[in-house]
C-alpha cells in the first residue's frame, strides 16, 4: 500500500489548474451507455474511480480509451446488462449503471455497490424511483435484478434529495415514454452537468439545479462531445490547504459559484479570497478564526465532502468551533487521526467540538476514506515535522496524484510505494 510522506510547516504558494469533477464524470460516463456510437468526454480526471468505471464499461462491451484528460467511448458493441460483482463492489458509483442499463436493455443485473466506509449508504430511493417508472426489482442477497419491458414517465417525490438517486432516475427516465417529474431532487452542480450532457445528446430535461426536474422521454439519444465541469471538492481542498498552511495560492479552472458556501466559511475564518472569473485567489497569513457552527447539508449548503478538510483548519483556529455532519453517519473517522497529531476535538453524536491549538505535530496516520485522507494530507502540510499518511488508495479515488498537485505549490510531499513504478500509465 502506498504512503505519502509530508514534511510540514511550509506555506503553499503558486498557481494550479483544477481537474475535472469526479462526481460529474462518473454519472456522465454511465449515461453514455444511453446512446449508441462514439462519445468523447473532455476534462475527465485520471482517478481510480474513473478507471473502475471504464473497466466496467469495457466489461459491458464498450471500447474505452483515456488519453490525457479525454475519454473516447464507443458503445456500439454493448452486449450485456450484467455488471460483475467484483467491479460493482469497488465503488459506490457503480450504482449509476442501473438506470442507463435498464433504459437501454429493459434489464439491469447489478450488485450492492461498494465504496468508502462513511455510512450505511442505502439505495432504497434509487430502487423505489425505478419501480415507480415501471421496473420490477428482485433482490437476491447481494444481487439486484431490475426488469421492465417499458419504462413510463411518472411523478416521483424523493423523501431526501439524494444526489445519486436523482441522477440514476434522470438517466432511467430519459428514454421512458412520457414525462417524469422529480420533486425534492438534489441540486448539486454535478446534476446540472448531467442534464447538460444528456440534453447535448438530444434529451429533453429541465430544472436541474432546482428541486424539481422534468424529463420528457425521447425515443433515442445521439452521441456527442462534452467537457466535464471543474471539481469543486478538489478546488475546495486546495483552498483549505492554502489557508491551513497560511499560504497564497491561485486556482485556475474553477466555478466559484459552486464554492460559495466554502468561500463564505473561509472568509468567516479570516481567509482572504478574491474571485475573478474562473480564478480564485486564496491568501492567508494570520491564524484562522474559529467558526461557531458549520452544518453539512445538501447543496447549496456546506458540503459533507469538504467537512474533514475544513475541520483541519478549525483545529488551528483561535477559539472553539463546532462542525456538525448530517449527511453520513460515519464521516468523523478522521477525528481520531487528527487527535494523534495534537488536535483537540471532542465528538458527541454527529457533532465535533474543536478547540483550536497553535500547532499540529507530524504523526503516522491512516486515511480511512477519500476526504478523511485529503484532510490528513492538509494536516500534514500544516503540521510541524513529518507526517506519514497510509492507505493512500482512498485518496487516489478522487485526486489525480495529490502529491504532484501539492509539489507544484511548493509542498514537501512524496509517495512511497512497495511496488516500483506503479504509477498509472498516462
Ligand atoms: C459520486 C457522487 O456524486 N458522490 C457524492 C454523492 O454521493 P451519493 O449519491 O451516494 O449521496 P446521496 O445524496 O445519495 O446520499 C446522501 C444521504 O442519503 C442517504 N440515501 C441515499 C440514497 C438512498 O437511496 N437512500 C438513502 O438513504 C445516504 O445513505 C446518505 O446518508 O453525494 C454525496 C452527498 O453530497 C457526496 O458525499 C458524494 O461525494
Ligand atoms: C463520498 C465521495 O464519493 P463517493 O460517493 O464516490 O463514495 C466523495 O467524493 O467524497
From TrEMBL:
Positions contributing to phosphoenolpyruvate binding: 22-23
Keywords: Cell cycle, Cell division, Cell shape, Cell wall biogenesis/degradation, Cytoplasm, Peptidoglycan synthesis, Pyruvate, Transferase
Binding residues for UDP-N-acetyl-alpha-D-glucosamine: 92, 305, 327
Reaction catalysed by this enzyme: phosphoenolpyruvate + UDP-N-acetyl-alpha-D-glucosamine = UDP-N-acetyl-3-O-(1-carboxyvinyl)-alpha-D-glucosamine + phosphate
Pfam families documented for this protein: EPSP_synthase
Keyword flag Cell division: yes
One GO MF term: UDP-N-acetylglucosamine 1-carboxyvinyltransferase activity
InterPro entries per record: Enolpyruvate_Tfrase_dom (IPR001986), Enolpyruvate_Tfrase_sf (IPR036968), MurA_subfamily (IPR050068), RNA3'P_cycl/enolpyr_Trfase_a/b (IPR013792), UDP_GlcNAc_COvinyl_MurA (IPR005750)
All residue ranges annotated as the Enolpyruvate transferase domain in the record: 7-404
Cellular localisation: Cytoplasm
Family annotation (HAMAP family): MurA
Name of this chain's protein: UDP-N-acetylglucosamine 1-carboxyvinyltransferase
Organism: Paenibacillus agaridevorans
Top-level taxonomy: Bacteria, Bacillati, Bacillota, Bacilli, Bacillales
Gene designation per UniProt: murA
Amino acid at each position: 500500500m502506498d504512503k505519502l510522506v509530508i514534511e510540514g510547516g511550509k506555506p503553499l504558494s503558486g498557481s494550479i489548474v483544477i481537474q475535472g469533477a469526479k462526481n460529474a464524470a462518473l454519472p456522465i460516463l454511465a449515461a453514455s451507455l444511453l446512446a449508441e456510437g462514439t462519445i468523447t468526454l473532455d476534462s475527465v480526471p485520471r482517478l481510480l474511480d474513473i478507471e473502475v468505471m471504464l473497466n466496467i464499461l469495457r466489461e459491458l462491451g464498450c471500447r474505452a480509451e483515456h488519453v490525457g484528460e479525454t475519454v473516447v467511448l464507443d458503445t456500439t458493441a454493448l452486449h450485456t446488462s450484467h455488471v460483475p460483482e467484483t467491479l460493482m463492489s469497488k465503488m459506490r458509483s457503480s450504482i449509476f449503471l442501473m438506470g442507463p442499463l435498464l433504459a437501454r436493455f429493459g434489464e439491469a443485473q447489478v450488485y450492492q455497490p461498494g465504496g468508502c466506509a462513511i455510512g450505511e449508504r442505502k439505495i432504497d430511493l434509487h430502487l423505489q424511483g425505478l419501480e415507480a417508472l415501471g421496473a420490477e426489482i428482485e433482490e437476491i442477497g447481494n444481487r439486484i435484478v431490475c426488469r421492465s419491458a417499458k419504462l413510463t414517465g411518472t411523478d416521483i417525490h424523493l423523501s431526501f434529495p439524494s444526489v445519486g438517486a436523482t441522477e440514476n432516475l434522470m438517466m432511467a427516465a430519459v428514454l421512458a415514454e412520457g414525462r417524469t417529474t422529480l420533486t425534492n431532487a438534489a441540486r448539486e452542480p454535478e446534476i446540472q452537468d448531467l442534464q447538460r450532457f444528456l440534453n447535448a445528446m438530444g434529451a429533453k430535461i429541465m430544472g436541474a439545479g432546482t428541486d424539481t426536474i422534468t424529463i420528457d422521454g425521447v425515443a433515442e439519444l445521439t452521441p456527442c462531445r462534452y467537457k466535464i465541469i471543474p471539481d469543486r471538492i478538489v478546488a475546495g481542498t486546495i483552498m483549505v490547504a492554502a489557508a491551513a498552511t497560511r499560504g497564497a495560492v491561485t486556482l485556475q479552472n474553477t466555478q466559484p459559484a459552486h464554492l460559495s458556501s466554502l468561500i463564505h466559511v473561509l472568509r468567516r475564518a479570516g481567509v482572504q479570497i478574491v474571485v475573478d472569473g474562473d480564478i480564485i485567489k486564496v491568501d492567508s497569513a494570520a491564524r484562522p478564526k474559529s467558526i461557531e457552527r458549520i452544518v453539512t447539508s445538501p447543496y447549496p449548503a456546506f458540503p459533507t465532502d469538504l467537512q474533514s478538510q475544513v475541520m483541519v483548519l478549525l483545529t488551528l483556529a483561535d477559539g472553539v468551533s463546532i462542525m456538525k455532519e448530517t449527511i453520513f453517519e460515519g464521516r468523523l473517522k478522521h477525528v481520531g487521526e487528527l487527535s494523534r497529531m495534537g488536535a483537540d476535538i471532542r465528538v458527541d453524536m454527529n457533532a465535533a467540538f474543536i478547540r483550536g491549538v497553535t500547532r499540529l505535530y507530524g504523526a503516522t496516520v491512516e486515511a480511512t476514506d477519500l476526504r478523511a485522507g485529503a484532510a490528513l494530507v492538509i494536516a500534514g502540510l500544516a503540521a510541524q515535522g513529518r507526517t506519514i499518511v497510509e492507505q493512500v488508495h482512498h485518496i487516489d479515488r478522487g485526486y489525480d496524484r495529490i502529491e504532484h498537485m501539492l509539489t507544484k505549490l511548493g509542498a514537501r510531499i512524496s509517495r512511497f510505494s512497495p511496488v516500483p513504478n506503479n504509477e498509472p500509465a498516462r
